[in-house]
Amino acid sequence: MISDEQLDAYRLSGEKVRVVRDAIPENDIRGIVVAWDDTHVLIRRPNRNVVKLDRSYIIQPSREPRISPEG
Question: What 3-state class would DSSP assign to 18?
């Protein structure tokens, strides 16, 4: 699970992140971190929709190569 400090750094910088949910790259969510609590994170997508996701997913900067959830 991603730390509060890392989420806060993403929020303050406004950096686009990628949320890897499964092995299919098309299912990734990209956007900026808006808020979070103990179990969820809110991501604002480019179309301004907000998505509530589990914090156990892989959250990484969008500019970095994709990390596969299988290992």
Answer: strand
Nearest one of 31, 41, 49, 46 to 6, comparing CA atoms: 41
Domains annotated for the chain, with CATH where assigned, are 4-61 (2.30.30.100)
Angstrom distance (rounded) from CA 66 to CA 3 = 19
Q: Where are any strands of DSSP class E within the chain?
A: 17-20, 29-36, 40-44, 50-54, 58-61
Stated pTM of the model: 0.91
Q: Centre a 10 Å sphere on the Cβ of residue 20 and count the other Cβ atoms it contains.
A: 18
Give the span between the Cα atoms of 45 and 48, in whole angstroms: 5
Nearest residue to 55 via CA among 29, 24, 19 = 19
For 10-25, the pLDDT digits (tens) are: 999 999 999 999 999 9
